[in-house]
Amino acid sequence: MSTRHFLTDIDLTAQEQDRVLNLAAWMKQNPYAVKALAGPQTAAVIFDKTSTRTRVSFAAGISALGGSPLIINPGESQLGHKESIADSARVFERQVSLIIWRTYAQAGLEEMAEHSASPVINSLSDDYHPCQLLADLLTVRERLGSLQGRKLAYLGDAANNMANSYLLAGVTAGMDVRIAGPAGYLPEERIIRAAEDRAAETGGKVTITADPSVALADADVVATDTWISMGQEDEKEQRMQLFGDYRVDADAMDKASPEAVVLHCLPAYRGAEITAEVLDGKQSVIWDEAENRLHAQKALMAWLLVESGRADEETVE
Ligand code: CP
Ligand code: NVA
């Protein structure tokens, strides 16, 4: 049985994504029933960038699965500077059951996975944030009951990790995903092509536009993300100007369905990409979304361990 990794949103097929979301919903109701890391086995959670939600949800989730989290903060290991990623993977795989890594380059995650018999999970890279999307989809399912055909509008920095993940995970779930951002800050062609290929399998839809009204028309879900991702702090002034027309505010919400829910992965800059009125308003589901990181990732970890032959099938039945 070969090792399954989760490096991008489309590493799960539509059926597998649905399975993980169903498992997450069940595990939310039965938080200590699945012990896929009993032993306790250790799971390494490595950070090259800072974090609140990812750190807390993985630490709590690994413990709830019967395991022991090993948190490695930025600059605390030899990984990537004194020692190659491949050599680090060879050390990790012999001692930990899962490698969860927040880093910059997607290529680094791919190299880690190539050299590791333990599943590798992308907990944010410059290109994708797939764990966040599992939590977001779980939240939308809870609120709207279904994902297939639902219209999802993402506004703002449409060239960042969250935009790419909304596109890929959204179409995997059969959603009608509209991504809106200024010219030059839209998803790369390779991401759009991958999303279109996946959409052709699932009945999902891809729209890439510079017009926020096109994205928002009758949307069931309105999502945004910071205009200044980690590592872009020097571009703050320029970015505040660039994305001004893509703010999620009351006017934007008027264009969406009156029942629409609002997502933001957090941390948020109230008054920049989203107004306080919307973020703290009735349509916002951001705190459920943040909580669901825990449930979604627990399900993902258990599922990957079973699929990789590292936990019994009965663990998740
Ligand atoms: N949404 C998210 O990943 O938050 P952190 O950066 O706090 O982990
Ligand atoms: N796009 C943001 C997401 C933070 C969770 C970043 O990469 O900083």
Set down the secondary structure blueprint.
Elements: H1 14-29, E1 42-47, H2 53-64, E2 68-72, H3 85-93, E3 98-102, H4 106-114, E4 120-122, H5 130-144, E5 151-155, H6 161-172, E6 176-180, H7 189-202, E7 205-209, H8 212-216, E8 221-224, H9 236-242, H10 250-255, E9 261-264, H11 276-279, H12 286-307
Helix pairs in contact: 1-12, 2-12, 3-4, 5-6, 5-12, 6-7
Bound molecules: phosphoric acid mono(formamide)ester and norvaline.
Give me a quick take on this structure.
41% of the residues lie in helices and 13% in strands. The chain has twelve helices and nine strands.
Give a quick set of tags describing it.
9 strands; transferase; single chain; cytoplasm; binds norvaline; binds phosphoric acid mono(formamide)ester; alpha/beta
Q: How much is the average pLDDT?
A: 97
| Stretches with pLDDT under 50, minimum 5 residues | none
- Derived from helix and strand composition plus strand pairing, the structural class reads alpha/beta
Adjacency order of strands in the biggest sheet: 7-6-5-8-9
Strand runs, count: 9
Bound chemical compounds: phosphoric acid mono(formamide)ester, norvaline
> What percent strand?
5-15%
Q: What's the SSE pattern?
A: HEHEHEHEHEHEHEHEHHEHH
Rg calculated over all Cα atoms: 19 Å
Q: Mind describing the biggest β-sheet?
A: 5 strands, parallel
* Cα separation of the termini: 19 Å
